[in-house]
Amino acid sequence: MSSASTSSVPAPHSPVWAVVGATGFIGSAIRSELAARGIEVRTVRAPRLHADGTDMQALKDRSAGLDTERASLTAGLAGADVVINAAGLATPGAGDSPELRGANALLPLLIADAADAAGVRRFVHLSSAAVQGHRPFLDESSHVEPFSAYSRSKALGEQALSARTAGSCSVTTVRATSVQGPGRATTAKLARLAASPLASVASPGTAPSPVSSVDSLVDFVLRVAGHRGPVPAVVLQPWEQASVSSVLEAAGGRRPARLPAWFCRAVLRLGYGLSSLAGERLHGPLRRVEMMWFGQRQEPGWAEETNNVPRPRVQDVLQEASRG
Question: N or C: which end of the chain has fewer CB within 10 A?
């Protein structure tokens, strides 16, 4: 991975950085990169939480009663300069459940409170651009349009962090886009799809795609966490210059078919309608098809304004998946 800017990368003898969820796909990549940069990493176990409520007040009430879990997290974060939350349930096709809300909405709230109590300088929470749903573009605003149980749980987590009483710890949410990387099941599925006759895009096939690489995401997260100046409450992982066609070509080694845009929209309208009748069971797969056909534009934000845009690596990751 390329080095971040001087103002964003901590010196080799920086204080401890804590990672919650360090055994997951993104968390393990963050832990490895920190170690490679000579930064002391502490892995902190995420408690298994359940949240029965579906609104912010219910989440606050539930969090207030978790004294044991909060104390354990506070002890685990003591002495850390930065904490990164990469924990959660990355299950875009899952149905709603107390476990999903606990992992994706309640946990970040609890970590933020523990980080305040432990004297942590900055807390970086990993969310998902899925919270903005079917909008024509992604940005760093508080506007969300969740469309599934997973995206609603992620949006609730963002809203809970923004609504809590701020303490001394700076809290920033990073909205990750469609992250791909070696060993990830979704990446292998994308490569198989891209190599099949089903690979297609809505004509003319030049729409920007938010498909991204785990390497660039990790680089960006470390830039946000190590930045010594103020960082907005929400930042968006920068676009890696991919189009819907270039993603499929890199992942599948062949040019995708180009379908009439009107046909693609009609299929999606019908599909989402049927899925709604079936309890949103098909929303996840339909969203992946929608992204394959139409992609989603990303608005420039904090990364572009502060020169903290990592080098795009998504083409390399997808070509590696294609060879695999």
Answer: C
